[in-house]
Amino acid sequence: MKLSTLLFLTLFISGATYSQTQITMAGLRTLASPSTTTPYFITDANRQGLFYYEQYDLNSADNNGTVIVNNGSKRYKRLYSQFANVRRKLF
User: Fold this and answer.
1) Helix, strand, or coil here: 18?
2) Which one-letter DSSP state was computed for residue 35?
3) What is the pLDDT of residue 75?
4) What is the pLDDT of residues 35-88, one digit of tens each?
5) Disulfide: which of 22, 36, 66, 74 matches 70 by Cβ 3.0-4.6 Å?
6) Rounded distance, CA 54 to CA 46, Å?
7) CA-to-CA distance for 64 and 91, rounded, in angstroms?
């Protein structure tokens, strides 16, 4: 696990002043100045989840589920607390 992910998880679990921004996937993709420190909670139906900025990932493609790319430069990845069911049909 990358250091940035471990740091985020530590702050996420221990932060008494933890806050998140609720937004849609389309909104995060087009946001002019997305935060690199505040997590985003995606509110789209059947796609809800917490996404965090991954500063070291420069190549992952937006896959409409676990990676969201903002304006082609910043990548946000889904934070999991359980196993993901990859066989579940979302559409």
Assistant:
1) coil
2) -
3) 94
4) 889 999 999 998 899 999 999 999 999 999 899 999 878 999 998 766 666 665
5) 74
6) 23
7) 11
Q: Are 75 and 68 in contact (CB under 8 A)?
A: yes
Listed residue (35, 29, 17) closest to 72, CA to CA: 29
**Single pTM value for the model:** 0.69
| pLDDT on residue 72 | 74
d(CA 32, CA 87): 34
Q: Which two tokens stand for residue 1?
A: 């696990």
Contacts of 27 by beta carbon, 8 Å cutoff, 6+ apart: none
Tokens of 88: 């579940």
